[in-house]
Design goal:
Rossmann fold; 8 helices
């Protein structure tokens, strides 16, 4: 099972949970020191999508960045961040998911490649507490990448996110930010990196809807030239067992109106 804590109703203190992971053989992150604000020598963590790594022109999510995924609900942002956590784990990184709204489905995360045995899931009481805990994890250099899911967590002012961006820059950790409603403006202003996602087509195998094709545009980039674009095929909770078959057989469908018998499936 993944290690979890509910900040509103503490189960185990967060430092204790991190120590438990380290005792089981997980090292204390990969970030070795401060990152140059100019971008010189900046390392990056893989996004899990090679075409997006190229579009970012930094080889992935730049270390020390607060990256806002600007997307309407259902446009693939959650699938993308889970794939990024899986890629970070595969490269030896330590990852966390801060989920104040309790929207994360661990089974979906596992099907998208995340190793739940090495995922720290934290459920803060609200958006403000989630940002504070993200800052604590960054300041402690406990994780390499974290997802800050504020999509359904209520309003948040810009100042907490500004502070978090500064802590990330000094620690070298990456925070992938999902925001919605009243928090979007604060996210846009604080994030050094903004990637806009827009669904361009559904992906189907026969009459089964298995994913979506998404256009990713690098709308803001503090450390490289913005404007890069990538086409991403994001599958619905795909299992590794049928990953190759899905990618080979999936066909784009521009609209579902002409295909009323399509049904959504997951691996």
């Amino acid at each position: 099972m993944s290690l979890q804590t509910d900040v509103a109703r503490p189960v185990r203190p967060l430092p204790e949970l991190l120590d438990a992971l380290r005792d089981r053989g997980l090292r204390k992150g990969l970030a070795a020191g401060p990152i140059s604000p100019t971008g010189a020598g900046r390392e990056a963590l893989p996004t899990g999508q090679p075409s997006l790594d190229d579009a970012l022109r930094t080889g992935g999510w730049p270390r020390g960045s607060l990256a806002f995924l600007d997307a309407t609900p259902g446009s693939g942002a959650t699938s993308l961040v889970l794939g990024s956590l899986a890629a970070c784990q595969a490269s030896g990184g330590v990852v966390a998911y801060l989920d104040p709204a309790g929207s994360l489905d661990p089974a979906t995360a596992a099907r998208l490649g995340v190793n739940l045995d090495w995922l720290l899931i934290v459920r803060p009481a609200d958006a403000v507490e989630a940002v504070e805990l993200a800052g604590w994890l960054a300041r402690d250099r406990s994780v390499d990448a974290l997802v800050l899911d504020l999509a359904d967590a209520g309003a948040l002012g810009g100042r907490p996110l500004d502070r978090l961006a500064g802590l990330l820059l000094r620690s070298g950790a990456v925070a992938l930010l999902l925001a919605g409603g009243a928090s979007v403006r604060a996210a846009e202003q604080a994030a050094g990196l903004r990637v806009a996602l827009r669904r361009s087509a559904w992906l189907a195998v026969g009459r089964d809807l298995v994913g979506q094709r998404v256009e990713a545009t690098v709308a803001r980039h503090r450390w490289a030239l913005a404007g890069g674009r990538a086409e991403l095929d994001l599958f619905f909770a795909e299992g590794r067992r049928i990953d190759a078959q899905l990618r080979a057989a999936a066909v784009p469908q521009e609209t579902l109106v002409e295909l009323p018998a399509l049904r959504v499936v997951s691996a």
